[in-house]
Model the fold of this input.
Amino acid sequence: MIDVTAIGEPLVQFNPLEEGPLKHAPLYEKHAAGSEANVVIGVSRLGFNTAYMTKLGRDEFSKFILSTLKGEGVDVSGIKQIDGKNCGVFFVQRGYPIPGRSDVIYYRSDSAAKYFSPEDLDGKLISNSRILHVSGITPALSNSCREATLEAVRIARRGGVKISFDTNYRRKLWTEAEARQTLIEISRDCDLLLTDPDDARILMGKKVDEDPLQALDELEALGPSTIVYKLGAARGLAGLSNGEKATSLPVKVPVIDSIGAGDAVVAGFLAGYLAGDSLQRSLDIGSCCAALTVMRRGDFENLPDRSDLEKWLSAKEQGFEVDFR
Ligand code: KDG
Done:
């Protein structure tokens, strides 16, 4: 049995060693990335079985992505490699023009993953999973990716597989008007909705309540029984599960690269959910994963294993005044 199967587009990330405009960045680090790949890697590190479905090419970057996923223990039997297309790439611009914020510049418009279609879905893999995880990025890539995402959700529904959906609206891929219907459709079908105030506005067609606990009530009307509301580095997380609500305050950490924080929240929360942890603990795990991720370049490298997670959670309880020697 697989705990979490995800579909999405893995990407190679180039992250400059220095902050500032990319035009003046001479040196870059190469990382594997992509929202849903980050999530399965995070869940896998916390001790669960994961699988990933996508299309890659046969280029060196596709080989790099494959070996990274395998190395992190992710089942890659649902990944197809095709001729003539390459793995997508993106660059991160850090700390400019807004200090502490990162931006992404994509080179992915004809990537192999864009050609993923419903025929590429491994229905058995989905039905054999406890959770199917999808995000709002995949349906934005192409019509066939949109169809594949919706079909994966239907397969999961039929098989009683829980659906986790991170709205992840990416304005560089589609307009709000294009995204809205699809995001609403998946939100109505999902069991776990992971979103933030900007995406919630798209879903609800209006600004949601400033008070996160009220906003959760508005979002619950869409249908999901569990919601994680990502409020950013200053406000942390709020969540709802079967009528119960909780919040998790963020820990202030030095931010090197904010990209990947949202996926880290999803990975941590899903790990808590799968373990049957309380809503509070699941949110706290998500919050820990996000804090660790932003402290270095790359989306998932800093995600914890079980033992580092427990160290963090106990240190947090003691106000970080703890000596592990
Ligand atoms: O959440 C991090 C992702 O944004 C990054 O890895 C790139 O998947 C990506 C995307 O489509 O923006």
Notes: Residues 11, 33-35, 38, 90, 104, 137, 170, 259-260, 262-263, 299 surround 2-keto-3-deoxygluconate (CB under 6 Å). The mean pLDDT is 97. Residues 2-315 form a domain with the UDP-N-acetylmuramoyl-L-alanine:D-glutamate ligase fold (CATH 3.40.1190.20). The CA atoms of residues 95 and 101 lie 5 Å apart.
